[in-house]
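[User]
Um, tokens okay?
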Amino acid sequence: MTHGTILVVEDIASLAMAYAAQLESAGYACVIADSGAAAIAELDRHGDRIKGILLDLQLPDTDGLELLQTNGGITSRWPVVVATADGSINRAIEAMRLGAFDFLVKPLAPQRLITIMRSAVQPLEALATPARTPVRAATTNGFMGFVGMSPPMLGVYRQIENVARSRATVFITGESGTGKEVCAEAIHKASPRGGKPFIAINCGAIPEDLLESELFGHLKGSFTGAVSDRIGAVQAAQGGTLFLDEICEMELRLQVKLLRFLQTGTVQRVGSNRTEDVDVRIICATNRDPEAEVAAGRFREDLYYRLAVVPIELPPLRARGHDIELIANTFLQRFGKEEGKNFDRITPEFARGLASHKWPGNVRELQNLIRRAAVMFEGPALPEEALPRMARLPRESAALSAEPVTGQSPACKDPAAPVAPLATDDLAGLLRGMTLDDIERLVVETAITDAGGSLPAAARALGVSPSTLYRKRERWIEQGLAS
């Protein structure tokens, strides 16, 4: 029994036969076409049994790109993997814009060809029929580490369930604090690789000169401090999943090496001249707009198209409705138990206060707020003071505006008079009760939000180095004040 039929479109007979033999060794049947016209004829004749296409971009009667452009239904019906010479990567990227699943650079490594074709054939079968019923692994409260059952999150759960069965690379986007690593872990756990390692690397938190070693490993003596041979995260994730968080923070020089790894399925440790085969699934994430980063020249276009086979966008907390209350109650019970306290479920009034907040830090901000409340208040109910300061500010401002000015009754106040700027005393009142560390975290998180989630941009605005912000965040995580 075969896994399906692959159409190999290659005009050089020896190459076509080699590719077919490699795919057949992996359980696929193959049909060979030596021209664009022959490929169309085979699709017309055997289209129902063809599961995928390996397409050379240089054909005797047509160009592979032209074949995809003039036959728009090809990429919508069959996954297409294009084969290109090393000097024509831009043409391969153009093919992916036209809907191709992935590209391979000649000469094609046999195992890489099999892996990519397997990834191409399997996920699109799974994704072609979206789930129309609630996801199987969901409970009344959430799904595989997520809490919430709002419509936007149900859509995310369905995507996770569908893509988990495949080997395709996944690109997760969303604001800071929306749960991108939780999403990556859910995909890993629900996949056939669930029993293998899940390795997470924050590409922005590791200095550039160390990130290559962290990813690919090194040999003893290859640089100062390399006191022994060491494998990197890629090899540590062998058979499992490698999660690259904040991928857009990676320097261009290292992006080239990551792309090479994705093309060949091999790694070369720092200081070594030997390559080693690795089988890992890549999931990456960013809180930036990756297409904007590509347009600005900060992220390689060919790497983006390699990684963004299946995109998943996580919704911000403010768009999740009743999930906010559900998440808050879940955190309150968890942190109350840790503190040895008993808390009631939050009141409807408190829930309305939470719903009125914009949550720039998303679930991470809500988690920190509830953890702080569990520490600072005895319960069983949370008082209004536990609400976010910005959620209380409208009420406090309303109370201040209702107070008559000395020597003047409320009725005498001119409604058209301009609103006075917040006085220093008022600001001090709002900050009263906060520690210096609380204020610093507030300033840092606000700067990150204003910078669209980019820590380097926030660091520039604050006049500090990005590594300073990463260190502060790591310290807050260790203290249980951030996640």
Remarks:
- Residues 178 and 438 are 21 Å apart (CA to CA).
- Residues 124-134, 396-424 have pLDDT under 50 and may be disordered.
